[in-house]
């Protein structure tokens, strides 16, 4: 797992590294070398380096110097003369570079800048890094809009200029990079909000030899989880198991209005490896589900007049629930009063429980000022996983805005910390999904845009249930299993897009490729472990 840091955590890390004997000036040299090596790999004849006032600019000046020594034709654009650069570290390297074989352009007009961009094969964006804040001031807004308009090939240093490294919010003008060379550790804003779209490919320069030791001494906003980190959680099926010991799931879901959600969640749980999946659905839709899923038993539960779970549902469901390794409750269920009672009944039981979709809406409706203010609703002996998307999560915390990764992590942590429960997990779904436990945040590989389709969430909750059920002996590692499930879901997106085309994928396609996705994740994990490289390329 790779640490993902907040801006403050990066500053603390730099201070620690300095205490260990590597100065910030040395780090700047290493950062510049790293950027230059990435640029060199593209064999540019002519490179344009756009430098700002701060240390991000300093990294750019160092890279410019190295590239010119290696034979590239290098131009540097700076808003002020090197002698007037306010950051002492950056001023030092700027003066040094300006005295060498590099063409320096101080405060060019927009037209002059456009000409320089057009003449270069590669642009290095060292305008703003972690120090960017507030509204983007001239001339940088003009530089950035010119750069984006021309569509130049761009390597951004640390973060794309104009992107807030903490929130991932972008200024009106923000560099659209092909590659972002981030220093020491990725910044959380690169995964949040506009970050993934503007950063392009992300590579991290570790810069410091003992980074692994020092980085453990600062908090981590999150950890990025690769398929290789899943290797411990992928086990071959032993020969001596039966359908029950392989993991059993009860899917409490569906209504006359939304029977499909129950079908997709149940089928996904089975495809993800659970040996025995049962659906408990209102009798209004039970027969439909039976017909659609011949391999899955369906328990018909008395409905209300609208075809949702009725008043008797709670006692029937709570009686059968403890027989299963995991209960998944919510898809397509509606928030009728019978459903609210089912959710509260299941919460009172000890069975490991996943609450998704309408079960979360029932929870939200059952608390007055947000569930973080009524943690007693969620305190239980059994494990609990909540799988809200941003709107559901916002409803759970009484309407506080949740619109990106960072706000999703904050809202999830508020719920978890209020409950103080270490057997609880929030899987906050979004373009980048976070698996938030009481003491760790995991960010699994994000899937393609094809996952943004109706029913995709039902597939994910089914995959989570299937994977968690098969891992019943290891409930201590639910965050890791949650991250594994999210990764598999992401890979269903890649695999389905490869078959159907990214725009045409529908949720049922995702279910059909769960097996392929499991295999892709496993192959990638094993190849990385055995040093063969990531040969499995996401379904390509
Ligand atoms: N992490 C590491 O280990 C290492 C980090 N290193 C590098 O240091 C970078 C951080 O450097 P940094 O702190 O000097 O900040 P940086 O991003 O250059 O910007 C500050 C300047 O921008 C200005 N400015 C701010 N907002 C603005 C706006 N809206 N519009 C216009 N201007 C604005 C701001 O002006 P001020 O707000 O002070 O008036 C100030 O002059 C980091 O990203 C990485 O690349 C490496 O060198 C070594 C290893
Ligand atoms: K930058």
Automatic annotation (TrEMBL):
Segments forming domain YjeF C-terminal: 226-521
CC cofactor: Mg(2+); K(+)
Keywords: ATP-binding, Isomerase, Lyase, Metal-binding, Multifunctional enzyme, NAD, NADP, Nucleotide-binding, Potassium
Cell division keyword on record: no
Domain YjeF N-terminal: 10-215
Residues noted as binding (6S)-NADPHX in the record, renumbered to the chain: 55-59, 129-135, 158, 261, 332, 389, 458
GO process annotations (BP): metabolite repair; nicotinamide nucleotide metabolic process
Database matches in InterPro entries: Carbohydrate_kinase_pred_CS, CARKD, Nnr, Ribokinase-like, YjeF_N_dom, YjeF_N_dom_sf
Binding site for AMP: 429-433, 457
Enzyme Commission number, as recorded: 4.2.1.136, 5.1.99.6
Keyword Transmembrane: no
Binding site for K(+): 56, 125, 161
Cofactor binding, note field: Binds 1 potassium ion per subunit.
Record GO terms (molecular function): ADP-dependent NAD(P)H-hydrate dehydratase activity; ATP binding; metal ion binding; NAD(P)HX epimerase activity
Catalytic activity of the protein: (6S)-NADHX + ADP = AMP + phosphate + NADH + H(+); (6R)-NADPHX = (6S)-NADPHX; (6S)-NADPHX + ADP = AMP + phosphate + NADPH + H(+); (6R)-NADHX = (6S)-NADHX
PROSITE patterns for this protein: YJEF_C_2, YJEF_C_3, YJEF_N
Function per UniProt: Catalyzes the epimerization of the S- and R-forms of NAD(P)HX, a damaged form of NAD(P)H that is a result of enzymatic or heat-dependent hydration. This is a prerequisite for the S-specific NAD(P)H-hydrate dehydratase to allow the repair of both epimers of NAD(P)HX.
Family statement drawn from the similarity comment of this UniProt entry: Belongs to the NnrD/CARKD family. Belongs to the NnrE/AIBP family.
Subunit (UniProt): Homotetramer.
Name under which the protein is recorded: Bifunctional NAD(P)H-hydrate repair enzyme
Upper classification of the organism: Bacteria, Bacillati, Actinomycetota, Coriobacteriia, Coriobacteriales
Gene from which this protein is expressed: nnrD
